[in-house]
Amino acid sequence: MIIDAHCHVWPDHIAAKVLAGRPAGLDPVHDGTLDGLRRTMDAAGIDMAMCLGVANLARTVDRTNEFIGSVDRSRFIPFGTVHPGLSIEENLASLKRHGIRGVKLHPLFQELSLGDPAVVELLHALAEEGIVVITHAGAGGDEASNERGHPRHLRALADGVPNLTLIACHYGGYHRLDTAEELVVGSRVVLETSWPPRLADLDPDRLRRIVAAHGADRMVFGSDWPMADPAAEIAAVRALGLTRQEEDAILGGTLARLLGIVEAD
Q1: Distances (CA, A) of 133 to 16, 36, 130, 178
Q2: Where are the beta strands (DSSP E) in 55-125?
Q3: What is the DSSP string of 148-194?
Q4: 264: pLDDT strictly greater than 70
Q5: How confident is the model over 148-186, as pLDDT tens digits?
Q6: What is the full DSSP assignment across 227-258?
Q7: Residues near 237 by beta carbon (within 8 Å), at least 6 away in sequence
């Protein structure tokens, strides 16, 4: 089973407008719609994908969760949104209302810091509810956004919120891989493999060392669709020459275990 942990989707009438703005300075390679994601998955041999919704503003949290909660759950796994501008109770109520058991945080687009006490308090509440959290981690283009997603915040969350299942995108440090290797690799944080626009841009020897140091049982495949092509990213993982057990774990086994997904016979 192959599961993509990192797919951004928007309603059809919004996707083109969002992508025209080149999020995070990247050029999209797909259209950002649910139908587009399904076609991409079919072409790449992906069984399931986490659909990530991000509300940049507190007032759009419930609207975003309504859309994400409506996805076809036979192929898509809804990961909704929260915002520190709402109370913990309001955030939890929105997730429950739309049947969502996972959350995406984005320090860049939401302008929230993973070290903000209000965010940490919210993550404690999510952990108590058994809600899995995936977050952007690493650089964001300027000093303020770099700080909001700094790898040291991931390590502090791993140590300070021990019952939280935390998935860190981009090996825990987009364009801050040295720092992520120092602070996050080897911790209890689950590392996700995306490195847009191409995972192949990273040194494969370095990636093999990260897998050996962190463990494939705490790593998950993600493409960062629609900013990267999942088929090429899967090929890059397979080109690392990992053991079959490690490759299977990263491409789907680890995430299936974390999310309680049972592969159909």
Answers
A1: 26, 25, 9, 23
A2: 76-79, 102-105
A3: HT-HHHHHHHHHH-TT--EEESGGG-BT-HHHHHHHTTTSSSEEE--
A4: no
A5: 999 999 999 999 999 999 999 999 999 999 999 999 999
A6: SS-HHHHHHHHHTT---HHHHHIIIIIHHHHH
A7: 193, 199, 221, 247, 250, 251
**What is the set of domains in the chain, with CATH numbers?**
3-259 (3.20.20.140)
**CB-based contact 254:216 (threshold 8 Å):** yes
| Angstrom distances, CA of residue 72 to CA of 28, 60, 96, 101, 249 | 23, 21, 17, 15, 24
Q: Which of 251, 260, 244 is nearest to 222 (CA)?
A: 251
Angle, helices 88-97/117-128, rounded to nearest 10 degrees: 40
Amino acid identity for residue 235 in this structure: A
What does the pLDDT look like over 10-66, one tens digit per residue?
999 999 999 999 988 889 999 999 999 999 999 999 999 999 999 999 999 999 999
How many CA atoms, within 13 angstroms, populate the side-chain half-sphere of residue 131? Answer: 28
> Is the whole model's pTM more than 0.85, yes or no?
yes
Question: Residue-wise over 122-149: b if at least 16 C-beta within 10 A, else e?
Answer: bbeebbeeebbbbbbbbbbeeeebbebb
How far apart (Å, rounded) are the C-alpha atoms in residues 29 and 170? Answer: 18
The conformation of residue 259, written as its DSSP 8-state character, comes to: H
The length of the chain in residues reads 265
The phi, psi pair for 142, rounded to 5°, reads: -145, 170
The yes-or-no verdict on residue 262 having pLDDT over 90 is no
Listing DSSP states for 17-52 in one string gives HHHHT-GGG---SS--SHHHHHHHHHHHT--EEEEE
Burial class (CB in 10 A: 0-12, 13-18, 19+), 63: middle
